[in-house]
Amino acid sequence: MTKKEEPPASQVPRAVRVASLLSEGEDLSGDDQGDEDEDDYAYERVPNGDWHTSSLSSSLPSSLLTPELPPHPMDGLPVGPTPTPLVIKAGWLDKNPPQGSYIYQKRWVRLDANHLRYFDSNKDAYSKRFVPVACISRVAAIGDQKFEVITNNRTFAFRAESDAERKEWMQALQQAVAEQRARARVSSAYPLGVQGSEPHDHAGSLELRGFKNKLYVAVVGDKVELYKNLEEYRLGIGITFIDMSVGNVKEAADRRSFDLTTPYRIFSFSAESELEKEQWLEAMQGAIAEALSTSEVAERIWAMAPNRFCADCGAAQPDWASINLCVVICKRCAGEHRGLGAGISKVRSLKMDRKVWTETLIELFLQLGNAAGNHFWAANVPPSEALQPNSSPSARRCHLEAKYREGKYRRYHPLFGNQEELDKALCAAVTTSDLAETQALLGCGAGVNCFSGDPKAPTPLALAEQAGQTLQMEFLRNNRTTEAPRLDSVRPLEKHYSVILPTVSHSSFVYKTASAGKLLQDRRAREEFSRRWCVLSDGVLSYYENERAVTPNGEIRASEIVCLAVPTPDTHGFEHTFEVYTEGERLYLFGLETAEQAREWIKCIAKAFVPPLAEDLLARDFERLGRLPYKAGLSLQRAQEGWFALTGSELYAVFPEGPCEEPLQLRKLQELSVQGDSENQVLVLVERRRTLYIQGERRLDFMGWLGAIQKAAASSGDTLSEQQLGDSDIPVIVYRCVDYITQYGLTSEGIYRKCGQTSKTLRLLESLRLDARSVRLKEGEQHVDDVSSALKRFLRDLPDGLFTRVQRLAWLEASEIEDEEEKVSRYRELLARLPPVNRATVKALISHLYCVQCFSDTNQMNTHNLAIVFGPTLFQTDGQDYKAGRVVEDLISHYVVVFSVDEEELRKQREEVTAIVKMRVAGTASGTQHAGDFICTVYLEEKKAEAEQHVKIPASMTAEELTLEILDRRNVGIREKDYWTCFEVNEREEAERPLHFAEKVLPILHGLGTDSYLVVKKHQSMEAMLLYLASHVGETKHGMMKFREDRSLLGLGLPTGGFHDRYFILNSSCLRLYKEVRSQRPWSGAPETSHRPEKEWPVRSLKVYLGVKKKLRPPTCWGFTVIHETEKHEKQQWYLCCETQMELREWLATFLFVQHDGLVWPSEPSRVSRAAPEVRLGSISLIPLRGSENEMRRSVAAFSADPLSLLRNV
User: Fold this and answer.
1) pLDDT of residue 876
2) Residue 709, SS3 per DSSP
3) H/E element holding 398?
4) The dihedral of CA 1088, 1090, 1092, 1094: what is its sign?
5) Where is region (Disordered) located (predicted)?
6) From CA 977, how far away is CA 455, in angstroms rounded?
7) Which of left, alpha, beta for 1118 (phi over 0: left; psi -120 to 50: alpha)?
8) Quick check: helix, strand or coil at residue 1176?
9) Using CA atoms, how far apart are residues 255 and 272, in angstroms rounded to an integer?
10) How far apart, in Å, do the first and last CA atoms of the chain sit?
11) pLDDT band at 645 (very low <50, low <70, confident <90, very high)
12) Number of H helices, E strands in the chain
């Protein structure tokens, strides 16, 4: 046989190059098959504009041409985003064409540790063909300068320029194959040969613009791989792969198309349907996220051998984890773990959730991890029920339900079934380093929040903290909301409410858009909606191409729906739309032609996913309905799932235990804030006497709820009733302005008569109207005249006016009544007819003007002048009608009678004015004109020079605000269960009083003597007090205590007498002292006392100080001092001693509870650093409270004799 003559390489014509992945002579079906026949396929040329050519470096560094050093055996395990492998060898080679002809094609060939690839040019980013090194069985020489690369199914022939070059290529290939096989033997990640057996995240056929035939595309990790067909995908021999670290995906104009863009090419794909396109987009976006992630955490956790394989199916290199179960899992199992719900498994990525992985959590996974996890959770898995890496999603779901929700395969603890003993064992285990024991106890039902029996450390978490067991603390925190496994458990929805939802059926044509993974910020045009036949049946919402289609385009299970939202009409292209949010973080938008159709669908879907427990919510015309994890009350350790409905500005809530609560009035919230980081956000809603924490477990629907609640809590219009309101139905915008002027403008000359700058006034008013609750007015930033002008403009611009259009004329006519009593009576009658918000606002405004005219000698604004300003403003007249001013003047002059101001309310108002007057007079009398606020020295933890802080105290500052400011100045962080409190310390009495968090500081400062001061420190007894109140029923306390009264002889202040047993009863109104206990009532357990108490004091007038003077020789060290101030400002003082510290805490807790209507401690003190307030009371002269008490008294002697004289002259 004669050898066929071959032309020299220099005479081989170059193949005609087209701007595609394939050149002429190569097609998508049989490239590189040697002499085998191929099917003929005609392919269209791709327009040049569709592909972007990028100039890569034309020369490679010499370092890349040297063979890579043999890797460590563990390097065979891929970690993190696939690193770009070093090039072992690269250069030009002639490649044998598909038909084996003599027309050689010159190719740039590149070999690295994983692939042999060839390109049209050394500047191309994407190959024409790649062959995994793991697929190569051998490399052989076949003649002059030629060699073959042989795989199990294909042979690739190449020709080098010389025999020496051929030898180099063959050696490099043989070494790469040998190293690949060595790595494969060490790692069980892949079977020997095809590395392409790595499971894909998503795969299927797609059309690629420029090719008539579909390509087979696979998303694998952080890459997108292109193959000619399914067969070649199975062989692992592909066209090219795209590194998604430089990729981006976006939807194209065609509903089924999308573009994968890179700096070098644009790949335009088309799917079979919209649903399929959505799946591809989701998979490719996941690949991008993985490509941009970091593998540092994964590498550290994989240092333990069991953590290198999925705890559930055994797949290699799992890059997800359940942080409460402490197991490392693969991506496929992670998806099913999410389906279990956060109450069973909290799933986080090892590579993307960087903030989650603290050093403590990483160490916890190294201590427990898959070894300990499977030792407990998978102790009894039958081989027939074990998962494999290639198990189907349904098989995974069933297995994980049995493993973690039911605990079917767990190793039972010897104490299983005995709850009391389990809890005791857990409390003992958390004080040791035995994490596996803690895991077993919790997995068998021990209560993570059980009571330990120790008031100082009442929970296992507190015990672990006390013992310094940081890993135990981390494990307990991650399991605070974990549900214990139950063999009889069912789906989460059924389990929560112990009912099966009724079957709801409905069907019709509905318009829908493609599902989204984020909130819809932009308007969706009508053209973006597709008409679909939708069927709701058996708890599944399915949508079809048309009513005759058999296979649905997609479906939504009712059990997966977490929220149903109804946007306002005309939000999108269809007038009536609704949104469905699912557990898988997807949002589905539906549109209908008529309101009736929309209402019917919304009603049916709501009935399908809302349990009977919350069916009352369905009767409301809600804007948003769904379930959310929440915390409330004093039980803040464990989150529960509740049902919520947003209707207008009201948020209705139904909790698993207990009746439907009163709705939260969102416009009346005292606080609306978002706390935590971006990964663990919590929405805090504070209303009077209750606080609700809504957790952002699912980011998509949480952000929807957050935006809707914030919008509902904001002002929705120009009328008073549409504003944000305070506790007394006073608009926050009015309260903010009035409070600011009360503090800083009462002595400002011409207040309300002078106008502020128009631009500043309008800017301030706009921000107040947008969200007055979040606006903090500060002196230096806003001038009092700007604030006063904003308030007047707001009142003048009210559409209906403050006195309403209907009643305006009646008010003006009433001012002409000559008889004063009859006129005042008429005013009272008209006031009662006003809407509640208008009535409250009128009272608040007139009360404020009443205070302003008290300072008319300084501000030149007496009652008449204020009436001239506010008459036309409030009645919205042109100033010509004198009767408007007369009404305002009458209301100010007869303020107490018209508004039925009682003595207590007037006293509080006078005290506030008195404080301001004292400061003004003190500054004038001393001859000093200090610019600043009332200054006080406050100490941190103890009284010493280095711990003192000089603080400006505005009239509105509370004890909580002062505490936070001191901590902020010293950069002291507030940890969980740190009860920082401001104390009033009386050195002479050797006693201290913890200030209530809402108590105003300024009045306390005026009463401090030279031997008293304020100190901020931790309240060591507060936690025990809160636990007592949480378990105590009722508002009363009674019991025996040692009692001693402070009786002074001849006014010399010398106490007499000793301590005696007395019986005390404390209730919501008074404290009663009985001399003796007569008998015991056997049926009630309460002692029977004499009917008439020996002494009785109103409870709200008492001040309770911890401690008793040592010179009184108290019988126990658990005593407190009680001071009562009479109406004549006379002080009575006595001392009480308890038998135990716990008894003392119980009495103190009850005192606080009844004095402050149950608000003993704020549910969640603000963690936000508080800026030092720049506060100034107009031009009042202020002095620091650091001089002697006598000096301060002498400087205001005239005023101190009759502090309310100024008010009496009004």
Assistant:
1) 83
2) helix
3) helix 393-400
4) negative
5) 1-72
6) 13
7) beta
8) coil
9) 10
10) 130
11) very high
12) 33, 45
Residue 1030 and residue 991 in contact, taking contact as beta carbons nearer than 8 Å: no
Q: Cα dist. 968→424, 963, 1170 in Å?
A: 40, 9, 7
CA distance 441 to 423: 8
Could you tell me if 922 and 1141 are in contact, meaning their C-beta atoms sit under 8 angstroms apart?
Answer: no
Query: Cα(202)–Cα(199) distance, rounded to whole angstroms?
Result: 9
Distance, in Å, from the CA atom of 432 to the CA atom of 444, rounded to the nearest integer, reads 19
Is pTM beyond 0.70? Reply is no
pLDDT on residue 1178: 32
Please tell me the total number of residues recorded for the chain in this structure.
1210
Which letter does DSSP use for residue 749 in this model? T
The encoded tokens of residue 213 equal 């035939």
Phi-psi region of 34 (alpha: psi -120 to 50; beta: other; left: phi over 0): left
Q: Which tokens hold the place of 1098? A: 């109103």
Per-residue pLDDT tens digits for 996-1027: 988 888 878 777 777 889 999 999 888 888 88
Nearest Cα to Cα of residue 131 among 161, 101, 95:
95
Q: What is the mean pLDDT of residues 929-947?
A: 68
CA-based torsion, 624, 625, 630, 633: positive or negative: positive
For 1092, the 3-state DSSP assignment is coil
Q: Do the Cβ atoms of 454 and 465 come closer than 8 Å?
A: no
Residue 537 identity: S
Look at residues 135, 142, 148 and name the one whose alpha carbon lies nearest to residue 177.
135
Q: Which residues pair with 107 in a beta bridge?
A: 93
Give the full edge-to-edge strand order of the sheet including 948-953. 948-953, 934-940, 1012-1018, 980-986, 991-994, 1102-1106, 1118-1125, 1131-1138, 1037-1045, 1060-1066, 1070-1074, 1095-1098
Sequence-distant (≥ 6) Cβ neighbours of residue 976 within 8 angstroms: none
- At 581 the pLDDT is 93
The per-residue pLDDT for 79 is 40
Assign 3-state DSSP to the chain and report helix, strand, coil percentages, each to 5.
35, 25, 40
* Candidate from 7-11, 211-215, 414-418 with smallest mean pLDDT: 7-11
958 DSSP assignment: B
Residue with tokens 């999603």: 393
| Residue with the two structure tokens 């404390």 | 1066
Q: What is the pLDDT of residues 1133-1171, one digit of tens each?
A: 889 999 998 899 999 999 999 888 888 888 654 433 333
Name the residue among 1100, 1210, 1076 with its Cα closest to residue 1155: 1100
DSSP 1156-1173: TTT--S-SS---SPPPPP
Q: How far apart are CA 1046 and CA 198, in angstroms?
A: 85
Whole-number pLDDT of residue 1194: 40
Residue 99 CA from chain centroid, whole number: 64
Q: CA 821, CA 809: separation in Å to the nearest integer? A: 20
- Cα–Cα distance, 889 to 896 (Å, whole number): 13
**Would you place residue 719 in the very low, low, confident or very high pLDDT band (cuts 50, 70, 90)?**
confident
Amino acid at 112: D
Written as one letter, the residue type at 299 is E
Higher pLDDT, 444 or 714: 444
CB neighbours of residue 352 within 10 Å: 16
Q: Using CA atoms, how far apart are residues 228 and 241, in angstroms rounded to an integer?
A: 12
